[in-house]
Structures are given as structure tokens and as C-alpha cells.
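Lab notebook page, bench 4
Experiment: in silico fold of construct C2
Operator: M.H.
Input chain length: 426 residues
Purpose: comparison with the prior construct
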Amino acid sequence: MKRNLFVCAAVFCVIIVCLSGCGRPAGEQSSQGESTTLNFMSWGDANEIQIMKSLLAEFEKKNPDIKVKYEANPGNYRQKLQTLFASGTAPDVFYMSIEDYPIYAQKNVLADLAPYLKKSKVVQADDFFSELLDFYRQGEQILALPKDFSPWVLYYNKQLFQEAGEEYPTENWGWEEFLNAARKLTKGNQQWGTALAWAPYLWPAIIWQNGGEVLNSSGDRCLVDSPEALEAIRWYANLYLKEKVVPSPLTGAQADSQQLFMLGKIGMYPGTAWNRIGFRNIKDFEWSFAPLPKGKKRASVFSNTGYCMSKTSKKAEAAWKLIEFLAGPQGQLLNGKAGTAYPALRSVAVEQEIIAPTAYPNEPNEIFANSLSYCRPLPQISGYPEMFSDASEALERIWNKVETPEEAMRKLANHLNAQLGKLGKR
């Protein structure tokens, strides 16, 4: 049975509003001479968690009066964070996803980092890519510092392209070139030209590429049933329904597309910088990546993680020191070298080992930084996580041939329009 996620989000928001004014003053610290213990929470796979542990050990070495109690919740982070805020025990510092940020920003539970950033000698506001830092601005306030970012790109298997006699993808590719290559790379049910990996996160970019919008400028009306959006979703759905150039995207039938790419069974895989970690283990073929193919215009979507401080933290000065360290050059350089995402600081993004890592010469990482000129964040409304769920179900109905793209998108638009006025844009 589908849960009513909109109701849950609304109840959660009421609870955290009530709690946002509770607790001792944000700047209150432990007594002089005593060590301070910070609670810090993140998500991440085993590799990212290990990187974070190394960073925290270095931070504690540089700040012997501050200890960090680290909790990683890779599987149920969203629910865990909501529970901690609802119970009045929010961590001092924590990761914030691009999807959940509007909920917390609207409800006034995040500390303003602008005064700290203004005084910092470790990291400066103008060193961040403006597209990333501006995402976390609320008027004069800054409610998070960017940890990193990751635009969607197109990974490809060089060997399969060579065998098919196809040129590698380039930044000049459009939908036509992409589809032609996908057809030539597909071999029945044994090999596929591409994949609909993480489809709920990619469909906004497809609509944008065709000149459409997901929401209007006020954020209170869904536009996925516009002619431009319908044309884009129809093209996207037909990669499976008509062209058969992707493995089944249906729940329960979908093989792990990333694993199929790593096994040499998929020629082109849409993914983020994070996928490089697994792909670096591939031994049987060479791979690289290019920008997503463009439609009527070039567009992509980026993921962005932020470091936040709870507004009710009793250890604000120590919490800022941790954020300053993690979001500063040292933290971003280590994360960037590991390949988990791309640095949010300009000064780190131009490091030679970031742009052209010696150990991974097949990675044209400058594509990530260059993509910010045409990348966009996900639509910023407090109900967007639920919108993902609804969009996934609509796409499933299309792929199952239960509804046409027109029927599914109009039903989705009507359903979301009934909710958007209540949730609002950040």
C-alpha cells in the first residue's frame, strides 16, 4: 500500500516548527577547559564513510578540544534525520540532500552560516561555485555550505563503440545521434545501447532539453502535461516501449543497470560523478564519459550535498569549525580525489589531480565543472521527494502500457497541482 508521503511530510514540518525555538542558545558552549563533543551524521557507501572517518580524524588532530561522534546512516538517512529533529535531538552537523533542503529551510530549523563564513580565514564565499552556494541562500542567510556536486553525464563503453564502428559521444551529440548509436549497440536481449538508470532523477532534464518546464516560475503549478513535456516523455518512454534499446526499467524486472554496464552489457549509461568509484574497478574494457546529449537545448540536472548546522545546537562555534574544515579546501580535495563527487570550491576544482587524475586518465573531469553553465538543480518545493515517488509511478504505468504518456502525465499534473498550493516553493 502506498504511504501518504505528503501527509507525513506535513506532520513532520509542524513538529520541527514547534521544536525550532527550543533548547539553549545556539552559541552556548561547554565550560572552559572541557572538550566539546559534536554529533555529526551523514549517509554514504563504505568508501565515502571511510573517507569521512579519515577527515574527522584529521579534524580532531587539529582541534584536540573537539571530539566528533560520527553516525552514518546509508540506508535510512532521511527518516533518521526527521526522527531526530522531531524528538529534539538533531545532530549538531549533518548532510543535507538537495531534495530535502526546502523542507528544513522553510521551517527555520537550520543555523545561519553567513556570519561565520564572512569571518572565516579558511574558506571564502566567492571561492564556491556561485550556482551551488546560491542554492542555499535565503535572503541574507546561508543555511548550508556545499560539500560537492555531481551533474548527470553519459558514461560509455569504448570497446562496444569500436565493435559497432561508432564514433564516441561528444558534446555536440543530440537526441538523434544518441538514439542512432543506441540502436547499433543493441543486440536483442543480450546487450543494450543505453539504460534508464535512476529514471526519476533524470526525467526533469529530458523535459528541460525539449524546452519544457516541470513547474511554473511560482512553483505552484506542475507543467508536465505541456506539449513540450509530453513530447519529451514520449521520446524517453519509447527508448523502452518502441526502440527496445534499454533493459526493462520495470520494478521487479529491472536488472541493476550499473552492474550491466560494468559487465559490458550496456553501451551508454547516464550517471553522476559518484558512479566513477565503481567503474574504476572495471578491468575488461575502457570507458569514459561525455555530456548528456542535448535536445532542442542543452540541459542537465545536478545533485548537490550540503553541510548544515542545527539551529538549536548548543555547540555552534565548534560545529562551525567542523563545517569550515569539511567544506574547506582540505575536505573537498580529499573527497574530490576519491571520486565521490566534484569539488564545490573553484580553487580545488582546478587542481591537476582533480581535472586529470594521473591514475585515471580516461576521466575528462573538466566536463563536471563546465556543466554548471547549463545544469539546473531539481525543482525546489518542499514536497519534491514525494513528487519523485509520484513521477516514478507514472513512468511505471507508461512502461507497463497501462496508460499512455499523455494520460499518465495529465494524471500526474492534476495530482501534483492539488498538492503544490499547500507545499509551496522555497
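Observations: The longest strand covers residues 300-309. The longest helix spans residues 405-423.
Next step: discuss at group meeting.
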